[in-house]
Amino acid sequence: MSGSRSSSWTIKVREKAIEALPPEKLLPDGQPTYVASWIYMFGVASIAALVVIITSGTILALKGPAWWHYTGIGHFFNSIHMWAVELFFFVMVVHLWGKYWMSAWRGGRARVWITGAITFLVAVPTALTGYVSQQNFDAQWISTQAKDGLNSVGVGAFFNVTNFGQMYSYHVLLLPIAVVALVSAHVLLVRRHGVVPPIELGKR
Amino acid sequence: MLRGKDDTKPWAGAYQPYDLVKEACIAIGVMALLAIVLTVLFSSPDDKPSTVAQWSRQLPVDFVKTAATELDGTSGTATYGPPYNHNGEGQHAAFIYLQKWLGVSHPINTAADYVIGPLETVPNDPALRSALAEYKAAPEKTQKAWGEAYAKPLEEDAEAEEEGKPLPKTVTVDATTGMVSVQASGTGPVPTMMTSLLSLARSGGLDGSLLTSKQFFQTDYTKPLLFMADGGLLDKRAEEQHLGGDEWGMMNETGSYPGQAWLWLYAFWYQIEPFKSSENADVLVMLIMGVLSLAFISVPFIPGVRDLPRKIPIYKLIWREHYRAMSPRSSA
């Protein structure tokens, strides 16, 4: 019995996960007293905006890509989706700048910065695939403009912005999965390492 | 590299009560409310897409000129190179030919796909059948000569219009039918083909023809979009909405909406020399952005960049309450 327990992959994964992130660390009910600035709000605001994006995007996906063009309620949810994206990028950029000026990669937190930076970079094509999937003049113009940059580095050979079907698949499934996975990794790393302490004065 | 300068110790000071789940719920509520308020105030843009039929009706001369260049192989798409054809090498930076190396993945033969193929679907038109048979039977050199002879007056007309000069009388448009007449000699069957193509486009038939492939369902708009991008209608609409490449291009969207403001740095390079006038601007800008993206990810490891926050003490502002609480005067 003990032999089979010690060789159990499930037990090993569980023990590693609990060791890395015990429940009180994963969902803490207290935080260091230095976490006392409005700049800290932009991290959670980024996640909140992402939740609004995914919720409104799910409603749009349930009704199909053309729904929002011919119904008022569809256009309403499309507008929420678009403004949530604008808010997401705005709060994420403020969050990134805040973390830069806090040198938030200190104390073994480089992976926290890296996952955050990659999230921003992956969010850009996620938004672009949305813009070229709109089935309106913006989609026509943006796709015919964007193709040249992507083609020039060979990306256009397998990522065709003028192919609505491919772009829609990327936009509603593949890239959102990547963004959510990266945000999840980012948040788990923050919970594991804790919020970066202030730079000690006189030790610049 | 990082650890040498990193003297950050785990926090051993006081903690304050914190409700993570409550904070997340409030944040979601606030962001949802903000999105709804912005929606109610500003809605979102949805300008109808252009069609080939609209293009042929609104700009018939431009349509015929573009179709002629597709036929004689001189259009933007015909000479593009990979991933659409082998008629060009594409862009490169020094010895890096990524566009060429990745090859042709979406083959487009502009003469066959945009002109001859759609015309072959037109039924009951003996004159067109005969013209197509004559064109296809002719040697490539003759086909090219016919195409160039037909395209020349159209190009002169377009140049005169662009320069604001009086338009030559070799190209006329019938105000009633919207059909285009081109006076030129040595054009073979091309005028008959172009007249039929314009009629097909005006009826909306060409929109359907350009989407037709081996299967019933269609989701790939590459062919019609590239055809329209070779012409002037998309450009005209974009210029009217200030969406041109020299006005920060695809970063914007129709109306006064913020668009993809996060692409500002990408669009920025196109506004300055040497990129502005470079034939390889796209690949150069993409490579620069690739390097900058790698640098962005690697900020914690780049000397100078990672040290700047300590030299410009914005952190003192962020943690001002902490420093105040930790100061000896406060402790006393």
Question: What does this protein look like?
Answer:
The complex is a heterodimer of chains A (204) and B (332). Chain A is built from nine helices and one strand; from the N terminus they run αααβαααααα. Chain A is mainly alpha-helical and 204 residues long. Chain A has two domains: 65 residues; 86 residues, no CATH class. In chain A, helix 4 packs antiparallel against helix 6, helix 6 packs antiparallel against helix 7 and helix 7 packs antiparallel against helix 9. Chain B is mainly α and 332 residues long. Chain B has a domain of 189 residues. Chain B has a two-stranded antiparallel sheet with strand order 2-3. The longest helix of chain B is centred in the middle third of the chain and has 24 residues. Chain B is elongated. Chain B starts with 14 loop residues before the first strand and ends with a helix. Classes of the chains: A mainly alpha (204), B mainly alpha (332). At the A-B interface, strand 1, helix 4, helix 6, helix 7 and helix 8 of A face strand 1, helix 1, helix 4, helix 10 and helix 11 of B. Strand 1 of chain A pairs antiparallel with strand 1 of chain B.
Features:
heterodimer; A: 204 residues; mainly alpha; 2 domains; 9 helices; globular; B: mainly alpha; two-stranded antiparallel sheet; 17 helices
List the helices and strands and how they pair.
The complex is a heterodimer of chains A (204) and B (332).
Chain A lengths: L1 H5 L2 H12 L2 H4 L3 E3 L8 H23 L3 H4 L1 H30 L8 H22 L5 H16 L11 H30 L11
Helix pairs in contact in A: 4-6, 6-7, 7-9
Chain B lengths: L14 E3 L2 H23 L9 H7 L1 H13 L25 H4 L8 H11 L5 H12 L2 H24 L7 E3 L6 E3 L7 H14 L1 H7 L10 H9 L2 H8 L23 H6 L11 H17 L10 H4 L2 H5 L1 H7 L1 H4 L1
Antiparallel strand pairs in B: 2-3
Helix pairs in contact in B: 2-3, 2-8, 3-5, 3-7, 3-8, 5-8, 5-9, 6-8
